[in-house]
Amino acid sequence: VYSTARSLITMNEDYDVIIMGTGMKECILSGLLSVSGKKVLHVDRNDYYGGEGASLNLNQLYRKFASQLTPDEQKLGLSKYYCADLCPKFIMACGNLVKMLLCTKVTRYLEFKSVSGSYVYKDDCIHKVPATPAEALASNLMGFMQKRRFKNFLQFVSQYDQADPNSYQGRNAAKCSTAELYEYWKLDENTQTFVGHSIALHTNDDYLNEAALDTIEKIQLYAYSVSRYGNSPFIYPIYGLGGLPEGFSRLAAIHGGTFMLNRPVQEVLYDANGQVRGISSNGEEARAKIVIGDPSYFLTAGKVVKTGKVARWLFILDHPIDGTSGADSAQIIIPFKHTGRKHDIYISVVSHAHGVAAQGKYLAMISSVCETSDPRNELSFAVRILGVTLTDFFFESDMFSPKSDGLSDKVFIPKSFDPTSHFQQDAVDVVEIYERITGTKLDLTISAEPGDLQDQ
């Protein structure tokens, strides 16, 4: 969401924490730290919120990605009805990200709506991801024998409790690998693929050799979120993710913090011992012993390393995706084993139902890690799933990770957004940074039921 406001407030004072960039991760950290009593200064070089995850209307999309063209509003609808997230990601309904939003009470400024369906691609078809024993038996993803085995596996997972050895059924998930657990339940490679990538939401197959407990807990969270919200485990804000940074700016003001847009950072300042002491901007200095910043603020400082590139391809459609039962919003995962690639391809679909497109229009974002010098061709496999499209915007983004954990110089840098269509890994990153900064565990025991989002 763009803002033309230019702050006249001076920043020449002391803060507990300075945050650079108004992306989702930076904003959540700002909220968590503000609520915990920290005095926070939050700046962004841009005149809009969101950074690489900004939300744009139709005119802004064309200016950014197709400046030589103008939108056909007869065909697409009015620009003002669009709020397209450049990094659209769905939120696990009962997961840690929702709990963090509830902890900060920023949800009082937002309204969420469930995502209509979660799907996986197999054999030229889109299938609903089965999350219950009943859905397992009805699914066309598996043959008869695998349906029975998968149903039994889900029943085992649903009652598994690490604190209760009686639930182990001979398999202690903390001491056996996921591959061993799959073998015990006789799940074939196809079933393993959609369980690991479409339910547990792993991004590669490294998890197969890791303790099965993590995968069991991920499946339990997915199934529980589906049980609370219905058709899928995901929710998404009405009007898109762009409302989150604005909500956090209001939250910061309540807790004595300051948000400043149009504030380029000339320099991150350090003391003689190499510890951060603040930033300089427009001839002023703001002082703090902790600085958080998205990777774009440290590209020339030697503090981040490029880990890859993400290709994203945004399409506007006038119809729902075939195979989704007319869903007005959906996540579709194409596991890499079905494409011959090394990485999964993700498709997120939202529409007028979430207030992000004109009536009757759908926004479909395809994303994945770039593996070759021709990422358009890499994603073309997924494009045919969309059917007829009205227009599209293709763009690439570098991915960066911090070189250090930030404990030595007190500069903490979140990782770039990955290509997934959900926030699961991003939530892990936020929790880890918060706990490194504060030295305390983030209390995520708060309830994250559907009513909790509405009550605030």
From TrEMBL:
Domain of life: Eukaryota
GO CC aspect terms: cytoplasm
GO biological process, one term: small GTPase-mediated signal transduction
GO terms assigned for molecular function: Rab GDP-dissociation inhibitor activity
UniProt cross-references to Gene3D superfamilies, sorted A to Z: FAD/NAD(P)-binding domain (3.50.50.60), Guanine Nucleotide Dissociation Inhibitor, domain 1 (1.10.405.10), Guanine Nucleotide Dissociation Inhibitor, domain 2 (3.30.519.10)
Pfam families given in the database record: GDI (PF00996)
InterPro entries membership: FAD/NAD-bd_sf, GDP_dissociation_inhibitor, RabGDI
Annotated family: Belongs to the Rab GDI family.
Protein name in the entry: Rab GDP dissociation inhibitor
